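Quick one:
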Amino acid sequence: MKLAEALALRADAARRVEQLRARVVSSARYQEGEEPAENAGSLLAEAGEVLDELEGLIRRINRTNAHVVIDGGGTLTDALARRDVLRLRHSVITDAADAAAGRDRHGGVRQLRSELRMLATLPVGELRAQADVLAREIRETDVLIQRSNWEVDLLD
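Output:
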């Protein structure tokens, strides 16, 4: 099985657990004189089985990510950490540029009731250029990760 297939199975298992959780919660109590819609005990047991499968998948995925060396010499885990930090860095830089430009998170211009001019403390143009470079690095790292996911076999 390829790593990408295991990642898809992990996502499916996580969704299944959430669905089972909702069904257990809705069937955990019922009104006297009526029957519950589903057997909460059997749903809970099924959730336990899916969670066991999920744990096995996560262990194998993590083992594979830590073992596989990809382009650039690092492991897949290193690339995942790099992508996560690049995304956070991009978000910080973009938010800083937006704030310096006088825009809030929703894209609107702030309307102040003051006659005083508001001045930027940060160079908006430079921040936007940094954000563009970071966005490119994120895309390149993500492509590398995705390619590896489809080329690498899942470890036992």
